[in-house]
Design a protein that fits this description.
Elements (H helix, E strand, L loop, with lengths): L1 E5 L4 H12 L7 E10 L4 E2 L6 H11 L2 E7 L5 H17 L2 E5 L6 H11 L5 E3 L7 H10 L3 E7 L15 H9 L13 E7 L9 E9 L2 E8 L8
Parallel strand pairs: 1-2, 1-5, 2-4, 5-6
Antiparallel strand pairs: 2-3, 7-8, 7-10, 9-10
Length: 232
């Protein structure tokens, strides 16, 4: 069963890939590409603000074809539906039967994805659905998942977390925070860039650049720092 994986460049997408490749429940699933929407004008991943050049480095590191869909900016709902409808039709023509998503528990998001794919011949999959996020976050870090916070919503979490490693120290800070913050940031508290983990053949080496504040969010500009060996 050929599948695309909806790939935001973050930790949950990377972990979903690991699950799809390693969990016997998905042994009949072959992930054949990473599906990402980008701001076509900026050539960056939507919301995460990550350069598409880094996304291509990720795709090479996990051994999959990047399907980068450049959207106009701004992009109306009608334009989005038309463009993505064409992408799904192309995927189906290439033998894709499933699109997997790293969603965890937001019912409205799941319902939206299911409705969008209804009648297309391509069905959605949710390999991480319903996993308790505290346990999932610790499991990812323990297994070697490595990510950097590339975008934060300062209304929901401290903006000094921008650029931090997604590790046990951060998860401890989340647990101590006075306001509820999801450890996996499922409600958009922050976004990450995954640079290593069990799904990666090698790490993606990145350097932290300038901080940019836009539309109420803070972003750090990650840049390629050359390829390094694991552990360097």
């Amino acid at each position: 069963m050929r599948a695309l994986l909806s790939w935001s460049s973050g930790k949950d997408s990377a972990w979903a890939l690991h699950v799809l490749r390693s969990d016997p429940a998905y042994q009949d699933v072959e992930v054949v590409g990473l599906l990402t929407t980008s701001n076509g004008a900026a050539d960056r991943v939507a919301m995460h603000g990550v350069r598409c050049s880094l996304l291509r480095e990720q795709a090479a590191a996990v051994g999959l074809e990047p399907w980068i869909v450049a959207l106009p900016h701004p992009c109306s709902n009608d334009d989005y539906a038309r463009i993505m409808g064409g992408v799904v039709a192309e995927a189906r023509a290439r033998g894709v039967e499933r699109i997997a998503f790293g969603d965890l528990y937001l019912e409205d998001i799941r319902a939206y994805r299911e409705a969008a794919l209804e009648g297309t011949g391509v069905r959605p999959m949710f390999p991480l659905w319903g996993r308790p996020t505290e346990a999932l976050a610790r499991e990812m870090v323990d297994a070697g998942a490595r990510a950097i916070l590339t975008c934060v919503d300062p209304r929901r979490c401290p903006d000094e977390w921008l650029g931090r490693e997604y590790d046990h120290a951060l998860l401890d800070a989340i647990a101590r925070a006075p306001d509820a913050i999801d450890p996996c940031a499922e409600r958009g508290e922050f976004h990450t860039f995954a640079y290593d983990g069990p799904a990666f053949a090698r790490p993606v080496a990145v350097a932290r650049g300038e901080v940019v504040r836009q539309d109420g969010f803070a972003f750090i500009d990650l840049r390629a720092a050359g390829l390094g060996a694991r552990g360097e």
